[in-house]
Each structure stands twice: as structure tokens, then as C-alpha cells.
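Trying the structure run again after the queue cleared.
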Amino acid sequence: MKLINRGFLMAKPSTAFIQWATQNDPELMMDENAEGSLYLIEEEFWDDDLIIEKYAKKIWAQECSSIEDDAKKWPELSEALPIIHYFHLEIGCTVIDLLKEPLEQEAL
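Done. C-alpha cells:
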């Protein structure tokens, strides 16, 4: 096991995102039990809200583009409907790699 020098932000779709995604693609099999995405962030941070604000647009773009390529068809993030309206977010600062194989990276 190895401690990785990253924290994490888990984004799991809420009802609002699921409704948009399934309206956009009726064949999409997504519900409240849908798997979330784990984003690696800096290991040390002091304010959860600032971290969410810092990465909200990147996470939003990644999650929406996995459903619809045309950004004009995405719901708009705003103060009234921030990312926390569309995703349940969980933040942590401990990431442990249980595998012996080295990590691989792929650009998105």
C-alpha cells in the first residue's frame, strides 16, 4: 500500500442531473444508485467550499460532456443552481493505493 499525495472530490449525480441526462438520452441507464466519479485534488486544503468552487467548472464540463458533446445543450450552472444542485459531493484528503502496479494516466 502507498499513500498518494492527493485528496479527492467524489461527484455522484443527484436527481436533477439524472433527470437532465435521461431526458437527453432516454436509453441511458442512470438512477439514484449511479456510480459517481472520483477526482483527485490537492492533498491539503482548508476550505471545502473553496475547493468545490475551484473545480466546479472542470467537473461540470467532464460530467456533462460524458452525456452530451454539445455544451450549448448543457444545463447552466448559476448561483441559483450551483453544482451541488446536480451532484452530491464528498471531499477527503487521504488516498491510499492498494495495488502494487504503478498508476497510469490518460489525458481527457
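The chain has one domain: 2-97. Worth checking whether this holds up in the mutant runs.
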